[in-house]
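Q: Structure tokens for this one, please.
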Amino acid sequence: MKYCIVVFFLMLTGILKGQSPHFSQFYSAPLLMNPANTGFIPGNIRVAGNYRSQWGNGGSSYSTSTLSTDFRLLKNKLAEGNKLGFGLSLLNDKSLEGAIQNSSISVSTAYNLSLDQDNIHTIGLGFQGVYNQRQINFNKLTFENQLTVGGFDPSLPVGESLPDGTKSYFDMGVGAAYHASLEDKSFFAGFSVFNMLKKKDIFLDPEFKLPQRYMLMAGGDLDVGANGVFYFSMNYQQQGTTNETTVGASYGIQLGDAKRNIISLGSWYRLNDAIIPYVGYQLGGLQTGFSFDYTTSKLKTGGQTRNGFEISMVYTAEDKSTLKRLVPWY
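A: Here is the predicted structure, written as tokens:
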């Protein structure tokens, strides 16, 4: 009985129902969004890090962090404009003060093919293999038998046998992408699918399978005047019966005469959920970003908001022969 109560509470978190971690700054998490982004960089290697924290007031915090790196292979052996990439990603997702954790290691590869002699248009396909580990630390949870007149006493026995709190499984994802890069503008669009193996849920109903996650991204950038850049992007994702759409834009202006010394201000909007102001700064191959989720949905009731913040950092080691501007989604 008491274990059922705990499981019901865990269901409310959405974690054990297969709701995948996500970032409002999706444009700064390339490998998490689409395996086809692997190795599609202007330089030789890229390192990206993201941290997200929400439910900071009125409830337990929920945090997600990820670190990834990807690089190009056989650069001098492929035709100009073609790119073969390999990448590695680490992700950690925590809720209920660390009582529930989801960790994963992903390996991805992609090939992007140039469609014309000027290397303006490219299409790419990517594959990702994922090792997931989901964990419940029952020592950080409280049970009915631990309730006393003076409050909860975690030293008291639970009163029943609990299952193994650690489960692991393998999964995979695929993606496709299109890019167009012109002198004063660029565009991209991509589609990806994750949870392709539809693994059975590991803590709840054994007949329930984790639903596949579908993701669509698109965006671009336009030069404005001598020192300005207009960035825009959108992201749609669906998993089971849950879906979300995020759209937005930012404006970047070059500071002084330094190359790629740009500050960007803008905002994104997650439909029927949150407004997401954004500020970013780029110096050379380093792009940093900060955003804040301000909840506008009905979840903002009784102090139980989903306000949160995100920090991102992306560094690309430059290739001097093909120096290009890094935009906020790569």
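A few notes: The domain at 2-322 is CATH 2.40.160.40 (Porin). DSSP finds two helices and 16 strands in the chain.
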